[in-house]
# Entry
Amino acid sequence: MDYASGLKANPSSIHAEGVKTKIKLQSARKKISGILKARPVEIIFTSGGTESNNLAIQGVVWAWREKIPARNAYSIAIAGGSEKKLPHIITTNIEHPSVLETCRMLKKRKLAEISIVPVEKNGIVDPKKIKKEIKENTALVSVMYANNEIGTIQPIREIAGEIRHYNKNNRQDLFFNRSCLFHTDAVQAANYLDLNVGKLGVDLLSLSGSKIEGAGRVGVLYKKKSAPITAIFGGGDQESGLRPGTENFPEILKFSEALESAQRIKEKETKRLVRLRNHFFNKMRHSHILKNVGMLFNGDLENRLPNNINITFPKIPSDLLVIELSSKGVMASSKSACESSRREGSYVIEAIRPESDPEIGGVRFSLGRETSKADIDYTIGVLSKILLRLKKWK
Amino acid sequence: MDYASGLKANPSSIHAEGVKTKIKLQSARKKISGILKARPVEIIFTSGGTESNNLAIQGVVWAWREKIPARNAYSIAIAGGSEKKLPHIITTNIEHPSVLETCRMLKKRKLAEISIVPVEKNGIVDPKKIKKEIKENTALVSVMYANNEIGTIQPIREIAGEIRHYNKNNRQDLFFNRSCLFHTDAVQAANYLDLNVGKLGVDLLSLSGSKIEGAGRVGVLYKKKSAPITAIFGGGDQESGLRPGTENFPEILKFSEALESAQRIKEKETKRLVRLRNHFFNKMRHSHILKNVGMLFNGDLENRLPNNINITFPKIPSDLLVIELSSKGVMASSKSACESSRREGSYVIEAIRPESDPEIGGVRFSLGRETSKADIDYTIGVLSKILLRLKKWK
# Structure
């Protein structure tokens, strides 16, 4: 008679309906762990990419602080206040806000020390520069797999190699005998790139249903079994105690099926989108109108997501272009939706074009499963007309 | 052309589709704020009840710590380590794990000091006992509106009165000039009780879609505009910066409609369920078989949710009864689903029956919109047979 207030069974209930739901939940977990070549117990369901990134970063910081008593804030303050003993995080200057702002928040709250490594002009970070920042109290390196604005793919395997090398030489038989962990935000990568966590060499990897067609609004955090993290939320013991709260069962099921289907068509879809993207690039490059206005492609042209195009049009504010394009039915973006209501321009474009006016920014076109060659041609036609008009008006 | 990877528009995007979604999101927010007699800006969407409770409690603690520099961990340690200067939280011993465990986590992490007030034998807390615990550094009182296991309704208005009285007399023109805030976890109350936040006198109130028929898997935190809290997650600036992450738009829409519909039928449904519940009670009381086995109703019989029945059968373990009932198609629970995989018994039953063996616990029957008189009669029939058999077997 317990309808759990008339809803579907709670997978953590011990009655028959609860058990049935739990079995389906476990099979979704198994499906996802199979794709990542991980173990089911290493898959933690969250509410989305933002929470996955927060759980990874804050979780490592709290585990680091709690496990080693000498490292809690009190002892440090009494011992002379050396901030060097706080857990240290290394990240880059083009991470998603859910990574970058989380690191800044932890610094502001005096819970961690952070180093932000700038990417190169092509939007790719140099693994050697990451390596240079690793020190005794580095608890975590967090570098995104692929960027959400300029689509650049980071050298995850190489960075993992540097960290492994450091751990091997510096974290053996020491008093602070804990490895430096490696987290990657793979939210943008899930549709197109290899998600084999062993090959990538990561300890933590974030995924989000928002970026996978047909997936539910849930997130996943892969956490290597040996990697110590603690929960952000206090509450029940769902997800091995690492993520309390009733499991979002129907959405989790959708997520596992959508990820599986995205993996199945990955190679074919990547080829198709690369062709479309190159068609876009080439047509733009040879367009006389655009040559008059001028344009700069953002992000490395080789190591980038197949579905991402990001262009700076010097002297034309990207927000204006996005609104003009929208009026013609073309949905583009000038920066991450997670920072749209902020006044400043895109910090990602600023990172690779520090000389440029922040208002100019870059216009991002994302290609999806429904994007056809006709869409590309239509977009370029519309874009050409708008640019010509705006140029005259200026 | 930006299909946001083929998905529906992101409400934080500035293109036309994004704006349309944002308008619908705002209208859902307005609908919910109308029911709570609050302002739309006071409604924060989260992933569920657990997150709402965490955001309320952790959010108050961090706002308290960050706003007053003299109260951060470093200064305290240097100043002599007086833990008294940490923000202090008062709660009860029968709160949901997402409140109780969050408080314990904050204590363990040396971020807050906590006082846990025990409820009376009838499962209701004495407002005077709450008042007695309030002191100079009390940042928050968190008392649930109605209990998830034994259904007791707490005297929220009276507790609010005590806090208001304390604030008026003690938090004026002091160096620590911040009010003691009041949070209530109203997750179980949403279907049946008055949600007018002004009348209740609360600063923070949590709701969860999981407990409202037809609502999506999202949560809501009402936060009085003047109440200072900070985010748990680092990330984008969604939900006034208090809850970063892409808004779970379709589920939010479902939530607002389901809450509205639950409010519409509230009075009629309450009357119907009270009748059914009393029928259950009376039939049980007059059953000879049950008189032989013995039974104790848990929680105050007057101040309780209309849909909740919780009974202790002395000498018969509640987990065993739940499994036996389940085999006959009756879904009951022995404790909160959020603590089902823990070995211990229900801490809520333990709080009101400290003399009882934890294994015995209590069996909870929840009535819902689909529950009929025939269901009640069937349940009592099944229960009687099971109890008789188990009694013989013992």
User: Anything to note?
Assistant: Residues 266-393 of chain B form a domain with the Aspartate Aminotransferase, domain 1 fold (CATH 3.90.1150.10). Chain B has twelve helices and ten strands. Strands of chain B lie at 43-46, 88-92, 113-117, 138-142, 181-185, 204-208, 219-223, 296-297, 308-312, 363-366. Chain B has two domains: 16-260, 266-393.
